[in-house]
Amino acid sequence: MLVLLVLTAVTLITLDQRGAGGGLIGSARDSARDAIAPVQSAVDDAFRPIGNWWGGVSNGAALKSANARLRKQLADARSEARSAQPALRENEELKRLTQLSFTGGIPAVATQIISASPGNFEASVELDKGTDDGIAVGQPVVAGDGLVGRITSASKRRSTVLLLTDPASNVGVRLETGDAGVATGHAGSDLLTLDFVKPEVNVKKGQVVTTAGLQNAAFPAGLPVARVVSVEKTPGDLTQRITLRPLVSVGQLQFLDVLRWPQVLAVPPAAAAPQAG
After folding, report:
1. Could you write out the DSSP letters of every residue in 15-40?
2. Is residue 117 located within the same domain as residue 77?
3. What is the pLDDT of residues 78-121, one digit of tens each?
4. 30 or 242, which is more confident
């Protein structure tokens, strides 16, 4: 039947091309076209995937090339973003160091960390400046979030900072309640212990402790030091067991400020001894 319909359509089309398109022949032609239309649609649907496949094969090389180019552009953009991250962090650190509000206007020397202590015997870092820049032993060292430690040695061009987490570090601090204590570091730990706080003092987890600034203290008052992470009270104990976490993580920093405190004052000359008469 399909062959017959095709032959009839070809015959009618031939007659139509010869000018006999009206009357009976025209009606027969239209009927033949309507009859063969479903068959034509089915054939088109059957062969369309083959045509699409062939088009994909012929355009595949161009698509692969465009895909590779886009992947390279994406990789380059990601690489540039990663390269910019250290510079952004350095810029943020330096910006925070220039906006320290808790130092009370104490003059500072901007420094850069060049190395950390090689072992676990001492928690310290080395700075790229020393006595030639006004750095002296005992001066406090701070970052954008608070106290880092103090200078324990200094040469003309280098200095060493003993960090708060070192066991030899002891900092007199004050709680938000006004009560004082001593924050001490521990070997191999990034936490501090707050000692000498009486049991009746209300110490809450999350509160920040600052330097006490008592007379002859090693640090000026008001420098943020650490945050309370745990509080334990045992009946009968004379003090609480309080654990602190320093506000500054030196492992993530590159720049520090050394506070030129206390200011060196001129010592008045001793009174002359009376001459023997």
Report:
1. HHHTT--SHHHHHHHHHHHHHHHHHH
2. no
3. 766 665 566 556 666 666 677 788 888 899 999 999 988 755 56
4. 242
How many domains does the chain contain in total? 2
Q: Are residues 62 and 162 in the same domain?
A: no
- CATH number for the domain spanning 208: value is 2.40.10.340
Q: 166: domain range? A: 108-259
**5 with 127, same domain?**
no
Q: How many helices (H) and strands (E) does the chain have?
A: 2, 12
Using CB atoms within 10 A of its CB, is residue 136 exposed (0-12), middle (13-18) or buried (19+)? Answer: middle
Q: Are residues 112 and 235 in the same domain?
A: yes
Prediction pTM value: 0.63
Which whole-number Å values give the CA distances from 99 to 82, 143, 166, 220, in the listed order? 27, 10, 27, 18
3-class DSSP assignment, residue 273:
coil
Given this model, what pLDDT does residue 213 score? Answer: 85
Q: DSSP character for 252?
A: G
Burial class (CB in 10 A: 0-12, 13-18, 19+), 111: buried
> What is the band of 265 on the pLDDT scale with cuts at 50, 70, 90?
very low
E-assigned strand segments in the chain: 108-116, 124-127, 140-143, 146-154, 159-163, 170-174, 180-185, 192-195, 208-211, 224-232, 241-246, 255-259
